[in-house]
Write a structure and sequence with these properties.
Length: 326
Protein backbone atom coordinates (compact mmCIF):
# COMPACT_ATOMS: atom_id res chain seq x y z
CA UNK A 1 0.00 0.00 0.00
CA UNK A 2 1.22 3.50 -0.82
CA UNK A 3 2.49 5.28 2.33
CA UNK A 4 0.34 8.15 3.54
CA UNK A 5 1.21 11.63 2.30
CA UNK A 6 2.21 13.21 5.60
CA UNK A 7 5.42 14.54 7.19
CA UNK A 8 7.85 12.06 8.73
CA UNK A 9 9.55 14.44 11.14
CA UNK A 10 12.88 14.25 9.31
CA UNK A 11 14.60 16.77 11.57
CA UNK A 12 15.34 19.08 8.65
CA UNK A 13 13.62 22.31 7.65
CA UNK A 14 13.52 25.08 5.06
CA UNK A 15 17.02 26.24 6.02
CA UNK A 16 18.67 22.86 5.43
CA UNK A 17 21.20 22.75 2.58
CA UNK A 18 22.08 19.89 0.26
CA UNK A 19 25.42 19.50 2.02
CA UNK A 20 23.64 19.28 5.38
CA UNK A 21 21.59 16.39 4.04
CA UNK A 22 24.68 14.56 2.77
CA UNK A 23 26.92 15.18 5.77
CA UNK A 24 28.62 11.90 6.66
CA UNK A 25 27.34 10.04 3.58
CA UNK A 26 29.69 8.34 1.13
CA UNK A 27 28.23 8.01 -2.37
CA UNK A 28 31.32 6.57 -4.04
CA UNK A 29 30.39 3.95 -6.60
CA UNK A 30 27.00 5.49 -7.23
CA UNK A 31 25.99 7.27 -10.42
CA UNK A 32 23.60 10.21 -10.55
CA UNK A 33 22.15 12.04 -13.53
CA UNK A 34 20.87 15.61 -13.17
CA UNK A 35 19.10 17.37 -16.02
CA UNK A 36 19.95 21.07 -16.08
CA UNK A 37 22.60 20.33 -13.50
CA UNK A 38 24.80 23.32 -14.39
CA UNK A 39 22.70 26.20 -13.12
CA UNK A 40 20.57 27.29 -10.17
CA UNK A 41 19.47 24.51 -7.85
CA UNK A 42 20.60 21.95 -10.41
CA UNK A 43 24.18 23.15 -10.07
CA UNK A 44 24.03 22.85 -6.28
CA UNK A 45 22.47 19.39 -6.60
CA UNK A 46 25.32 18.32 -8.91
CA UNK A 47 28.02 19.75 -6.69
CA UNK A 48 26.66 18.26 -3.47
CA UNK A 49 26.30 14.76 -4.93
CA UNK A 50 29.77 14.90 -6.50
CA UNK A 51 31.36 16.18 -3.29
CA UNK A 52 29.81 13.19 -1.48
CA UNK A 53 31.57 10.88 -3.94
CA UNK A 54 28.98 10.17 -6.64
CA UNK A 55 29.74 10.34 -10.34
CA UNK A 56 27.29 12.89 -11.74
CA UNK A 57 26.22 13.11 -15.37
CA UNK A 58 24.75 16.48 -16.34
CA UNK A 59 22.37 16.77 -19.26
CA UNK A 60 22.52 20.28 -20.70
CA UNK A 61 20.93 22.01 -23.68
CA UNK A 62 24.13 24.11 -23.95
CA UNK A 63 26.89 21.65 -23.06
CA UNK A 64 29.68 24.14 -23.76
CA UNK A 65 28.33 26.51 -21.11
CA UNK A 66 27.83 23.62 -18.71
CA UNK A 67 31.39 22.41 -19.17
CA UNK A 68 32.70 25.92 -18.55
CA UNK A 69 30.73 26.15 -15.29
CA UNK A 70 31.76 22.68 -14.12
CA UNK A 71 35.32 22.65 -15.47
CA UNK A 72 37.04 22.38 -12.09
CA UNK A 73 34.55 20.00 -10.50
CA UNK A 74 35.58 16.34 -9.96
CA UNK A 75 33.51 13.31 -11.00
CA UNK A 76 31.19 15.32 -13.24
CA UNK A 77 30.42 14.53 -16.89
CA UNK A 78 28.44 16.72 -19.31
CA UNK A 79 26.45 15.66 -22.37
CA UNK A 80 24.06 17.42 -24.75
CA UNK A 81 20.37 17.09 -23.91
CA UNK A 82 17.47 19.10 -25.31
CA UNK A 83 14.27 17.98 -23.61
CA UNK A 84 12.12 19.49 -26.36
CA UNK A 85 13.80 17.29 -28.96
CA UNK A 86 12.82 13.59 -28.86
CA UNK A 87 15.87 12.76 -31.00
CA UNK A 88 18.19 14.50 -28.53
CA UNK A 89 16.59 12.68 -25.59
CA UNK A 90 16.96 9.32 -27.30
CA UNK A 91 20.59 9.98 -28.28
CA UNK A 92 21.54 11.15 -24.79
CA UNK A 93 19.92 8.14 -23.11
CA UNK A 94 21.34 5.68 -25.64
CA UNK A 95 24.88 6.86 -24.92
CA UNK A 96 24.37 6.43 -21.20
CA UNK A 97 22.76 3.00 -21.44
CA UNK A 98 25.50 1.85 -23.83
CA UNK A 99 28.08 2.65 -21.14
CA UNK A 100 26.70 -0.28 -19.14
CA UNK A 101 26.56 1.70 -15.94
CA UNK A 102 23.73 1.46 -13.43
CA UNK A 103 21.87 4.68 -12.65
CA UNK A 104 21.23 5.07 -8.94
CA UNK A 105 19.77 8.60 -8.91
CA UNK A 106 17.90 10.38 -11.69
CA UNK A 107 17.07 13.98 -10.81
CA UNK A 108 14.66 15.51 -13.33
CA UNK A 109 15.59 19.09 -12.54
CA UNK A 110 15.62 21.04 -15.82
CA UNK A 111 12.62 23.18 -16.62
CA UNK A 112 11.20 26.42 -17.94
CA UNK A 113 8.72 28.78 -16.30
CA UNK A 114 6.04 31.06 -17.75
CA UNK A 115 7.48 31.86 -21.21
CA UNK A 116 5.37 33.31 -24.02
CA UNK A 117 3.47 30.69 -26.00
CA UNK A 118 5.81 28.45 -27.99
CA UNK A 119 5.50 24.95 -29.34
CA UNK A 120 7.94 22.19 -30.16
CA UNK A 121 8.05 20.47 -33.55
CA UNK A 122 5.14 18.24 -32.50
CA UNK A 123 2.94 21.22 -31.63
CA UNK A 124 3.23 20.61 -27.89
CA UNK A 125 3.21 23.72 -25.66
CA UNK A 126 6.78 24.33 -24.54
CA UNK A 127 6.35 24.05 -20.76
CA UNK A 128 4.54 20.72 -21.03
CA UNK A 129 7.08 19.56 -23.61
CA UNK A 130 10.12 20.44 -21.51
CA UNK A 131 8.96 19.93 -17.95
CA UNK A 132 6.92 16.75 -18.45
CA UNK A 133 7.13 15.02 -21.84
CA UNK A 134 10.90 15.29 -22.19
CA UNK A 135 11.47 13.89 -18.72
CA UNK A 136 8.94 11.09 -19.27
CA UNK A 137 10.75 10.00 -22.44
CA UNK A 138 14.16 10.34 -20.81
CA UNK A 139 13.16 8.16 -17.86
CA UNK A 140 11.74 5.54 -20.22
CA UNK A 141 14.89 5.42 -22.31
CA UNK A 142 17.12 5.26 -19.21
CA UNK A 143 15.07 2.50 -17.65
CA UNK A 144 17.61 -0.33 -18.32
CA UNK A 145 20.20 1.59 -16.24
CA UNK A 146 17.68 2.38 -13.49
CA UNK A 147 16.56 -1.26 -13.39
CA UNK A 148 20.17 -2.40 -13.10
CA UNK A 149 20.67 -0.20 -10.04
CA UNK A 150 17.27 -1.18 -8.67
CA UNK A 151 18.10 -4.86 -8.82
CA UNK A 152 21.45 -4.29 -7.10
CA UNK A 153 20.16 -2.33 -4.10
CA UNK A 154 17.85 0.43 -5.25
CA UNK A 155 17.46 3.51 -7.42
CA UNK A 156 15.45 6.70 -7.14
CA UNK A 157 13.86 9.11 -9.59
CA UNK A 158 13.24 12.64 -8.33
CA UNK A 159 11.00 14.97 -10.34
CA UNK A 160 11.42 18.64 -9.44
CA UNK A 161 7.91 20.10 -9.27
CA UNK A 162 6.79 23.35 -7.63
CA UNK A 163 4.33 24.87 -5.21
CA UNK A 164 2.99 26.33 -8.45
CA UNK A 165 1.06 23.07 -8.88
CA UNK A 166 -1.51 24.56 -6.53
CA UNK A 167 -2.59 26.98 -9.30
CA UNK A 168 -4.27 24.18 -11.25
CA UNK A 169 -4.26 20.63 -12.51
CA UNK A 170 -3.74 19.08 -15.92
CA UNK A 171 -6.38 19.83 -18.56
CA UNK A 172 -6.42 16.57 -20.50
CA UNK A 173 -9.06 17.94 -22.88
CA UNK A 174 -6.81 20.78 -24.12
CA UNK A 175 -3.34 20.31 -22.61
CA UNK A 176 -1.49 22.31 -25.26
CA UNK A 177 -3.75 25.39 -25.39
CA UNK A 178 -5.01 24.70 -28.88
CA UNK A 179 -8.56 25.86 -28.11
CA UNK A 180 -8.38 27.84 -24.86
CA UNK A 181 -6.44 31.12 -24.56
CA UNK A 182 -2.85 30.60 -23.51
CA UNK A 183 -2.14 31.43 -19.86
CA UNK A 184 1.55 31.06 -19.04
CA UNK A 185 0.88 30.44 -15.34
CA UNK A 186 -1.82 27.83 -15.95
CA UNK A 187 0.56 26.17 -18.38
CA UNK A 188 3.32 26.21 -15.77
CA UNK A 189 0.98 24.89 -13.08
CA UNK A 190 -0.20 21.97 -15.19
CA UNK A 191 3.37 21.02 -16.13
CA UNK A 192 4.33 21.01 -12.46
CA UNK A 193 1.24 19.02 -11.51
CA UNK A 194 2.23 16.61 -14.27
CA UNK A 195 5.61 16.14 -12.56
CA UNK A 196 3.88 14.97 -9.37
CA UNK A 197 1.42 12.72 -11.20
CA UNK A 198 4.33 11.22 -13.13
CA UNK A 199 6.07 10.29 -9.86
CA UNK A 200 2.85 8.71 -8.56
CA UNK A 201 2.32 6.60 -11.69
CA UNK A 202 5.99 5.73 -12.15
CA UNK A 203 6.40 4.55 -8.57
CA UNK A 204 3.45 2.18 -8.92
CA UNK A 205 5.18 0.56 -11.89
CA UNK A 206 8.81 0.75 -10.81
CA UNK A 207 8.65 -0.14 -7.10
CA UNK A 208 8.63 -3.92 -7.79
CA UNK A 209 11.97 -3.43 -9.54
CA UNK A 210 13.64 -1.52 -6.69
CA UNK A 211 13.17 1.92 -8.28
CA UNK A 212 11.21 4.50 -6.27
CA UNK A 213 9.95 7.87 -7.47
CA UNK A 214 9.33 11.18 -5.71
CA UNK A 215 8.32 14.71 -6.62
CA UNK A 216 9.69 17.75 -4.80
CA UNK A 217 9.01 21.42 -4.26
CA UNK A 218 12.47 22.95 -3.92
CA UNK A 219 11.25 26.25 -2.47
CA UNK A 220 11.10 29.80 -3.75
CA UNK A 221 14.56 30.63 -5.12
CA UNK A 222 15.78 33.51 -7.27
CA UNK A 223 17.42 31.76 -10.25
CA UNK A 224 17.60 32.05 -14.01
CA UNK A 225 14.33 30.09 -14.19
CA UNK A 226 12.57 33.47 -14.35
CA UNK A 227 14.48 34.55 -17.49
CA UNK A 228 11.34 34.57 -19.67
CA UNK A 229 9.35 36.79 -17.28
CA UNK A 230 9.37 40.62 -17.52
CA UNK A 231 11.52 42.27 -14.84
CA UNK A 232 8.63 44.08 -13.14
CA UNK A 233 6.67 40.84 -12.91
CA UNK A 234 9.68 39.04 -11.44
CA UNK A 235 10.06 41.78 -8.83
CA UNK A 236 6.41 41.48 -7.83
CA UNK A 237 6.66 37.69 -7.78
CA UNK A 238 9.55 37.66 -5.35
CA UNK A 239 8.10 40.48 -3.27
CA UNK A 240 5.19 38.14 -2.51
CA UNK A 241 7.47 35.32 -1.34
CA UNK A 242 10.39 37.25 0.14
CA UNK A 243 9.63 35.89 3.60
CA UNK A 244 10.21 32.30 2.40
CA UNK A 245 12.99 32.79 -0.14
CA UNK A 246 15.74 30.19 -0.12
CA UNK A 247 19.24 30.31 -1.58
CA UNK A 248 20.19 27.70 -4.23
CA UNK A 249 22.00 25.51 -1.70
CA UNK A 250 18.80 25.28 0.35
CA UNK A 251 16.75 24.84 -2.81
CA UNK A 252 18.74 21.76 -3.80
CA UNK A 253 18.31 20.11 -0.41
CA UNK A 254 14.96 18.39 -0.93
CA UNK A 255 16.01 16.86 -4.25
CA UNK A 256 19.15 15.48 -2.64
CA UNK A 257 17.22 14.28 0.41
CA UNK A 258 14.74 12.39 -1.77
CA UNK A 259 17.57 10.88 -3.80
CA UNK A 260 19.54 9.62 -0.80
CA UNK A 261 17.67 9.56 2.53
CA UNK A 262 17.26 6.22 4.28
CA UNK A 263 14.12 7.63 5.92
CA UNK A 264 12.41 7.10 2.55
CA UNK A 265 13.41 3.45 2.19
CA UNK A 266 10.36 1.45 1.17
CA UNK A 267 8.42 4.58 0.21
CA UNK A 268 7.61 6.29 -3.06
CA UNK A 269 5.03 8.18 -5.07
CA UNK A 270 5.20 11.05 -2.58
CA UNK A 271 5.48 14.84 -2.86
CA UNK A 272 8.13 16.35 -0.60
CA UNK A 273 9.17 19.82 0.54
CA UNK A 274 11.67 21.22 3.06
CA UNK A 275 13.42 17.83 3.25
CA UNK A 276 10.34 15.98 4.46
CA UNK A 277 7.19 14.47 3.04
CA UNK A 278 4.66 17.25 2.53
CA UNK A 279 1.21 17.29 4.06
CA UNK A 280 -1.81 16.55 1.91
CA UNK A 281 -4.07 19.62 2.00
CA UNK A 282 -7.57 20.31 0.62
CA UNK A 283 -8.08 21.82 -2.81
CA UNK A 284 -9.18 25.13 -1.26
CA UNK A 285 -6.31 25.35 1.24
CA UNK A 286 -4.99 28.93 1.59
CA UNK A 287 -1.56 27.60 2.51
CA UNK A 288 1.43 27.91 0.23
CA UNK A 289 2.68 24.57 1.55
CA UNK A 290 1.36 21.05 1.09
CA UNK A 291 0.21 19.11 -1.95
CA UNK A 292 -3.22 19.55 -3.54
CA UNK A 293 -5.38 16.50 -4.24
CA UNK A 294 -5.32 16.82 -8.03
CA UNK A 295 -1.54 16.30 -8.00
CA UNK A 296 -1.61 12.95 -6.18
CA UNK A 297 -4.84 11.48 -7.59
CA UNK A 298 -3.87 7.94 -8.72
CA UNK A 299 -6.67 7.77 -11.30
CA UNK A 300 -5.60 11.06 -12.89
CA UNK A 301 -1.99 9.86 -12.76
CA UNK A 302 -2.93 6.83 -14.83
CA UNK A 303 -4.90 8.93 -17.32
CA UNK A 304 -1.96 11.28 -17.74
CA UNK A 305 0.44 8.35 -18.16
CA UNK A 306 -1.68 6.89 -20.96
CA UNK A 307 -2.05 10.30 -22.61
CA UNK A 308 1.71 10.94 -22.39
CA UNK A 309 2.45 7.63 -24.08
CA UNK A 310 0.20 8.79 -26.90
CA UNK A 311 1.78 12.26 -27.14
CA UNK A 312 5.35 10.91 -27.13
CA UNK A 313 4.85 7.61 -28.91
CA UNK A 314 6.80 6.00 -26.05
CA UNK A 315 5.08 3.03 -24.41
CA UNK A 316 6.80 2.80 -21.05
CA UNK A 317 6.32 -0.45 -19.14
CA UNK A 318 9.12 -0.87 -16.58
CA UNK A 319 10.51 -4.38 -16.44
CA UNK A 320 13.48 -6.10 -14.87
CA UNK A 321 17.12 -5.86 -16.00
CA UNK A 322 17.75 -7.16 -19.50
CA UNK A 323 14.15 -6.81 -20.62
CA UNK A 324 12.95 -4.19 -23.09
CA UNK A 325 11.08 -1.47 -21.16
CA UNK A 326 9.67 0.71 -23.91
Amino acid sequence: MKPAQHPLGSGYDAHTTARDVLRGQNLRGQVALVTGGHGGIGLETTRALAEAGATVVVGARTPEAARATLADEPRIEVAALDLQSPASVDAFAARFVASGRPLHMLVLNAGIMAPPLARDARGVESQMATNHLGHFQLTARLWPALAKAGAAGGARVVAVSSRGHRLGGVDLDDPFFERRPYDKWKAYAQSKTANVLFAVALDRRSAPHGVRAFAVHPGAIATDLTRSIPADEVQALFENVKHILKNPEQGAATSVWCATSSLLDGMGGLYCEDCDVAAAVPADSPLGTGVRPWATDPELAERLWAATEGWTGVVFTPRGPGEDAS
